[in-house]
Amino acid sequence: MSAGLDNLKHVVVLMMENRAFDHMLGALRAADPRINGLVGNEANPDTTNEPAQVAPLAEFQSQLDPDPDHSFPAVQKQLFFGTPGPPAAPEMQGFVQSYWDQQHNVAHSRKIMYYFAQGKLPVLHGLAQNYALFNGWFASIPGPTVCNRAFAHYGTSFGQVNLDIFYVKDAGESIYERMLAAGHSTKLYYFDPSSSTQEVVNLLKNQPQIFATYQQFLDDCRNGALPDYSFVEPNYSDHPGDDGGELLASDQHPDHDVQAGEVFIASIYNAIRQNPDLWRSTALLITYDEHGGIYDHVPPPACIPDGYHAPLTDTNNMPFAFDRLGVRVPSILVSPWVAKATVVPGPEDPANGRVFEHASIPATITQHFIGNYDNRTPREKAAQTFLDLLTDVMRPDSDCPAFSFD
């Protein structure tokens, strides 16, 4: 066991919304070729059969409207357009065609290939280049928010692949229930009642024990009262501000302001970093629930099934068996015990690559805090865990980035 693990008392997961790896982090390949980002010649055909090439033209807002379709059928098209479909490997050629379906505007559909230029996201890019960046972290299913977040809480979505609010009778224990039963503290910090996680209705039966607010997270960090495991949600909607202005949604869901999300990510990082005892004893995972219909070039790999089948059918008219992952998303592990500029190889490295998904979250928390726990899906039991990235060397404060905003 490393010194970083010996000192680890708290794990925090911040899950943002609906952005693909290449869209947010693909530009970083130019500065560090270990990062499996964009070369610059990646393309998808548009509906006139002309290649729509990736370009560093992504804007903070007002570009991805309407919201790109990320339903199960739409993601199937994004992955398998022009191919036989599963079990064939996805060729990632249907993103532009899928976006065209919503507005029938060729020029607009090509914007789904845009990505953020290096440095345009100083917080996310700064964290990615200073801590551990995962080349191979994928959404748990090729579909939307609610079911992907369920994987982060339960290691399964109980057969759900759509946005329906659902309740599962006799569901297994969430990671929060496991932690409480084992005598550990845990909280799910939400911003307001529009929280996406609360759409996983099973979690609400433990609302008094596990739910808390974003402001309570900041207070708990300041007061040294952070629980052993925390899951943090951003703000999903615009609100009137106390000063008469507007508090913008910070989830980065298209077409919300990406800069507001940058500030929110920094606020979570700063709250942990500004308490020295907390900083040396906490690991922060920043990830995204799914890709939101936006282009990524890495084909999602197969995975261990979770034992469920979805009523929706894939392109071969077969029930979806939860045996392949969704599209790749940005994910970064932050800790002073992480070696600077770590890049965790993914499927691009057949010898050393590692594949992570949202079931890796309850798998990691269970492994570290609880130990052996059998009442889990085969999918979660097989999921990669990530705390082995903590080393024996704690980096000095001067070697860790700081962010400040007016």
State the shape: globular
* Overall number of domains: 1
**What about the largest sheet?**
8 strands, mixed
Per DSSP, the total helix count is 14
Oligomer: single chain
Per the CATH scheme, the topology name is Alkaline Phosphatase, subunit A
Low-confidence stretches: none
Query: Beta-sheet strand percentage?
Result: 5-15%
- What sequence of helices (H) and strands (E) makes up the elements? HEHEEHHHHEEHHEHEHEEEHHEEEEEEHH
Helix content: 25-40%
Q: What's the CATH superfamily, by name?
A: Alkaline Phosphatase, subunit A
How would you write the strand order of the largest sheet?
7-6-8-1-11-14-4-15
Q: What's the level 1 CATH class?
A: Alpha Beta
Termini Cα gap: 41 Å
Secondary structure: elements and pairs:
Layout: H1 3-6, E1 10-16, H2 21-25, E2 43-45, E3 51-53, H3 72-80, H4 95-103, H5 106-109, H6 122-130, E4 132-134, E5 137-138, H7 145-154, H8 175-181, E6 186-190, H9 207-210, E7 211-213, H10 214-223, E8 229-232, E9 239-240, E10 246-247, H11 258-273, H12 276-280, E11 282-288, E12 310-313, E13 319-320, E14 332-334, E15 342-344, E16 356-357, H13 360-370, H14 378-382
Q: What this model shows, in words?
A:
- This protein has 406 residues and is of the alpha/beta class.
- The chain has a single domain, classed as 3-Layer(aba) Sandwich (Alkaline Phosphatase, subunit A).
- The protein is 27% helix and 14% strand.
- It has 14 helices and 16 strands.
- An 8-stranded mixed sheet has the order 7-6-8-1-11-14-4-15, with helices on both faces.
